[in-house]
Amino acid sequence: MLQFVSELSIEYKIFYSVLLFSWTVYLWEAYLAHRQRKVYRSTSHVPVELGKIMDTETFEKSRLYQLDKSTFSFWSGLYSETEGTLILLLGGIPFLWRTAGLLIGRAGLGPEYEISQSLMFLLLATLFSAFTGMPWSIYNTFVIEEKHGFNQQTLGFFLKDAVKKFLVTQCILLPVTSLLLYIIKIGGDYFFIYAWLFTLAVSLVLVTIYADYIAPLFDKFTPLPDGDLKQDIEAMARSIEFPLTKVYVVEGSKRSSHSNAYFYGFFKNKRIVLFDTLLEDYSPLNKAGEPEPEHTEENDAAETKAKPKNKKQGCNNPEVLAVLGHELGHWKLGHTVKNIVISQMNSFLCFFLFAVLIGWKELFTAFGFHDSQPTLIGLMIIFQFIFSPYNELLSFCLTVLSRRFEFQADTFARNMGKASELYSALIKLNKDNLGFPVADWLFSTWHYSHPPLLERLRALRGPKED
C-alpha cells in the first residue's frame, strides 16, 4: 500500500490528500454529533441541578428540538460532503470553468478575458449552490423550525427573501472579486500586500454600511422609542464611555422567534441593535390575540404569521440592560479589536502563502487544469483545499478564545452590578431559544463558541434560591 502511494504522481497525492482530509474532518464531526445525539436521547429527565432553572415541559421541548436539528445536520452534512466529493472526482470545477468560457465566448470574449470568465464562473457556482441548498433550507425552515414554533415566514416571503439575498450578494461579490483579481494581476511581486489591504478595506466598509444600508433591505429597523429603557441604555453607555449614537429595534419576528442583540460601527459612531423578540415589552409574539397595529407595508401582513405563545417572549428591561452590559463588555475589554487583529493577521498570512504557492503548476493539474492557471481557481484551491488543515486548527483555537471572551464579558456585566439580572436573562434566553443545557464534553469543547449555560451560571454565582 505504501509503495503504491509513493509511486503516485505529486498531482494525485495532492488530490487524494485533499479528499482524505475532507472525509476525515467529516467523520470526526459526525462522531462528535453522534456523541451529542446520545446525550439528547438518554437525558430525558431534568437533572437535579437544573430543577429550579428549567421546567420539565421546556426541557423536553428543547431536547426534541435539538435532536431534530442534529439529525437534520447529519443528513445535510452527508449530502454536502458527498456532493463535494463527486464534484472533485467528476471534474466539476474545470467543467464549470469551461462552461463559463463558452458563455462569455458568445459575447465575443476570448480566453484572454480571464476576469470576465472568472465572474461568470462565480455566478454559475453560486447559482448551483443556491439551487442545491434550497431544498435543505426549506426543510429546515418549514419543517424543523415550524414544528418547534420558531418559523414566522410564509413560503412566499421565504422565496422572495432568498432571491433578494442572492441578488444583493452578487452585487457585492462580483465587483469585489473583479477588483481583487485585477490587483493580483497587476500587483507584481508584492501583490499579496495590496490584495490584503484591499480585502481589509472592503471588510471595514461592509461592517460600516451593513446595518445602515444592507440589513434594512431585509428587515425593518426603527429607533427605540423614548422611555426608561432607552434612557437606561444611554446612561449605561456613558458610564463606560461607549460612544453610542443610536439604538435600533429590528423586526426579527418577521422571520423567527429567536432573539439577539449586537452593536456595530467604528470610532465615535456606535449603534446598538436589539431584536424585537429580545424585548418583552416590544415582542409581537407576546401580543397574540390582540389586534395587530396597522402596517405601513400592506404585504407584510400576508407574508408573516403571528403565532400564539404559551409564555412571554424575551427579557424585561433590567435583563435587557444586563445582556447589553455583557455585549458592551466585549467592546470595553477590546475583544472586538482583538478579533479584527487576529482575522487580519490570518488574512495576511494566507495571501502571503498564496503568493508562494500560486506558481506551483501541479496544484492546478491536480484539480483538472492542465492548460491554464486561472487566478480565481488558484484562490479556490489554495484557500479552500490546501489550507483546510490550517483552517480547522484555527477554527478550534478561535472557538476556545471565544469561550474565554464570553466568560470575561459575563464578569464585566457582573462587576457592573448586573449579575442577578444576567443570570435570569440567560435562563430566559435559553428557554426562548430552546437551548439544551446538557452537552457532551467533547462536542461542546470542539463546537461551542459560548460556554454551556450551567458553566456561565456558576461563574456568575447567581442569587441563592430558597
Description:
The chain is 67% helix and 4% strand. The chain is built from 16 helices and 4 strands. A 4-stranded mixed sheet has the order 1-2-4-3, sandwiched between helices. Helix 2 packs antiparallel against helix 3, helix 5 runs antiparallel to helix 6 and helix 8 packs parallel to helix 10.
SS field, number of helical segments: 16
Mean pLDDT: 88
Principal-axes shape call:
globular
Which radius of gyration do the C-alpha atoms yield?
25 Å
State the end-to-end distance.
67 Å
Specify the biggest β-sheet: 4 strands, mixed
Strand content: under 5%
Query: Strand arrangement, largest sheet?
Result: 1-2-4-3
Structural class: mainly alpha
Helix content: 55-70%
Q: Oligomer, anyone?
A: single chain
Q: Could you state the order of secondary-structure elements as H and E? A: HHHHHHHEHEEEHHHHHHHH
Based on DSSP secondary structure assignment, what is the total number of beta strands?
A: 4
Q: Which stretches are poorly predicted, pLDDT < 50 over at least 5 residues?
A: 289-304, 306-310, 462-466
Summarize the model shown.
The chain has helices spanning 2-7, 10-42, 56-89, 92-105, 114-147, 155-186, 191-214, 228-239, 298-303, 317-332, 335-357, 361-366, 375-386, 388-432, 441-447, 453-460, and strands at residues 221-223, 244-250, 261-264, 270-275. The protein is mostly helical and 466 residues long. The longest helix has 45 residues, at 388-432.
